[in-house]
Amino acid sequence: MKKVRFYGVTLLMILLTTAFTSCSKSSDDDKEDTASYTTNIVGVWTITVDEGWKIDSDGQKDTWKDEDADEHLKFYKDGTGTHADDQDFNPFTWKIVGSTLSITPTISSYDSETWTIKSINAKTMILETSGTKSYDKLTCTKS
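^ thats the sequence. predicted structure below, dont judge the formating
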């Protein structure tokens, strides 16, 4: 009888250990995604398409779709980066949590921005940000 109880308790402990291990798997997946995004984002990206809309102060919806390659984002491994176009050079710090990219300018008058990484691989990145009065989507290619 003691052996049956011993085996029963041992089986119960194994099942509980397996159940707790299985529950923590999803947070490990989130860490892997963040690590993958962080690894892929490092480098120089050219903004090839900037499209979106914004409700102006008159309540009118302004839409745009710019297809040019005069803006660049550079992400360094140390969490710093730069945004540059033909006229401005703006340094920033960046951080990725899950699929959210936060960019904070370090010396410019720009506001901090939060972007959702919709997709990223070795060559292409798509970022989106939206609110009740605006939406912006950037399609970028890696140089």
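The first strand starts at residue 43 and ends at 55.
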